[in-house]
C-alpha cells in the first residue's frame, strides 16, 4: 500500500494521540465521516491501525513490531524533521554509529552534505544511503542480516562493535515507557543496541512522538544512559520530568 497525503496525515494524528475517534479525525482532517471511515478501513486492512468501536489506535503489541513497509510510511514528515535537527547538531569530521530503524535511515539521508564522517552501522539501508556520500567512510557491521528490514543482528555484530569507541551513537528506538525505559522487540537487536550505547562517548536518541507510551518487551536502556533525545513533538507527561531528572537534553525538531 502507498498511502495518499490525507491518509499519511491521518496516521500522524493517530500516532500523536495514541487513539482517536472517527469524529475527531473528520474534524482534524476537515473531511466527511464517510471519507475517514473509508481511509480507516483501508489502513486497518494493511495493519497500520487497529480499530475499536468508534475509533482507531496505533497497533500495540509488546512482542512484535510493525512490518518494515508499515513503519516506513508512518510519520514520514516528523522523522524528516528529526533527521534535519540531528544533522544540524552533528559536527563534521566525527565518528558515529547508526543502528536499525526508519528514523536512522532518515538521518542518513540528512547527512549527505556532511564531510569527514566515519560511520559504523548495522543497517544495510543506512550503508547504502551514506555510501553515496564521497566524504563519508562507511563501515558495515558483520553478522546475521535480518531480511525484513536489512538490519544486522546477533553475537557476531556485538563482537564487531566492541572493537570501536565512537564520538556519537545515533539510536533509533521502538518504545519509551513511562518508567524511563527505552525498549525494543527483538532480543538480538537489543543486544547490539546495548553494545552500541556502551561504546560511544555520547548517545543521541531519535524518537518520533509515537514512541512515547508505546509498549515493547525488551529493555534496551534507561533514559539516564543517554545524553540527548530528538523528537518531532513535546512528549506527554511524565516524560519531560523524567528527562530533566536524568539530565537528558531534549531537542524539539521544528517544522
| Biggest sheet features | 7 strands, parallel
The CATH C-level name of the largest domain is Alpha Beta
Tell me, what's the shape? Answer: globular
Please give the oligomerization state of what you see: single chain
Mean pLDDT reading: 90
The proportion of strand residues reads 15-25%
Classify the fold: give the CATH topology of the largest domain.
Answer: Rossmann fold
DSSP strand tally: 15
Report the radius of gyration as a whole number of Å.
Answer: 18 Å
Second rung of CATH, namely the architecture of the largest domain: 3-Layer(aba) Sandwich
Instruction: Please state the structural category.
Output: alpha/beta
Unreliable sequence segments: none
Alpha plus pi helix count? 10
Helix content: 25-40%
User: Order of helices and strands, N to C?
Assistant: HEHHEEHHEHEHEEEHEEEHEEEHE
- Compute the separation of the termini in Å: 27 Å
**Total domain units:** 2
Strand ordering within the main sheet? 6-5-4-9-12-14-15
Description of the structure:
The protein has 255 residues and is α/β, with parallel strands linked by helices. It folds into two domains: 5-59, Winged helix-like DNA-binding domain superfamily/Winged helix DNA-binding domain (Arc Repressor Mutant, subunit A); 71-252, Rossmann fold (3-Layer(aba) Sandwich), CATH 3.40.50. The chain has helices at residues 5-17, 22-29, 33-45, 68-73, 76-89, 102-110, 124-130, 155-161, 187-198, 239-245, and strands at 19-21, 50-52, 55-57, 95-98, 117-121, 136-140, 144-146, 151-153, 166-172, 175-176, 181-184, 200-206, 218-222, 228-231, 249-252. The chain is globular and about 55 Å long. The mean pLDDT is 90.
Amino acid at each position: 500500500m502507498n498511502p495518499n497525503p490525507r491518509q499519511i496525515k491521518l496516521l500522524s494524528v493517530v500516532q500523536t494521540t495514541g487513539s482517536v475517534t472517527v469524529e475527531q479525525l473528520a474534524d482534524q482532517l476537515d473531511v466527511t465521516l464517510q471519507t475517514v471511515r473509508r481511509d480507516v478501513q483501508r489502513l486497518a486492512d494493511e495493519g497500520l491501525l487497529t480499530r475499536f468501536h468508534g475509533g482507531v489506535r496505533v497497533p500495540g503489541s509488546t512482542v512484535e513490531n510493525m512490518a518494515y513497509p508499515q513503519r516506513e510510511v508512518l510519520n514520514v514528515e516528523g522523522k524528516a524533521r528529526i533527521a534535519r535537527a540531528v544533522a544540524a547538531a552533528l559536527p563534521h569530521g566525527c565518528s558515529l554509529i547508526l543502528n536499525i530503524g526508519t528514523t536512522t535511515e532518515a538521518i542518513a539521508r540528512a547527512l549527505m552534505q556532511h564531510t569527514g564522517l566515519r560511520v559504523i552501522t548495522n543497517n544495510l539501508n543506512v550503508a547504502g544511503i551514506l555510501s553515496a556520500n564521497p566524504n563519508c567512510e562507511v563501515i558495515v557491521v558483520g553478522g546475521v542480516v535480518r531480511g525484513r528490514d536489512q538490519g544486522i543482528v546477533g553475537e557476531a555484530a556485538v563482537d564487531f562493535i566492541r572493537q570501536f569507541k565512537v564520538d556519537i551513537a545515533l539510536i533509533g528506538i521502538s518504545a519509551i515507557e513511562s518508567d524511563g525505559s527505552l525498549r525494543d522487540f527483538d532480543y538480538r537487536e537489543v543486544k547490539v543496541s546495548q553494545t552500541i550505547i556502551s561504546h560511544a562517548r555520547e548517545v543521541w536518541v531519535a524518537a518520533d512522538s509515537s514512541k512515547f507510551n508505546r509498549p515493547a518487551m525488551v529493555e534496551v536502556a534507561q533514559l539516564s544512559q543517554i545524553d540527548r533525545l530528538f523528537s518531532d513533538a513535546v512528549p506527554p507527561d511524565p516524560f519531560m520530568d523524567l528527562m530533566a531528572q536524568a539530565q537528558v537534553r531534549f531537542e524539539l525538531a521544528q517544522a
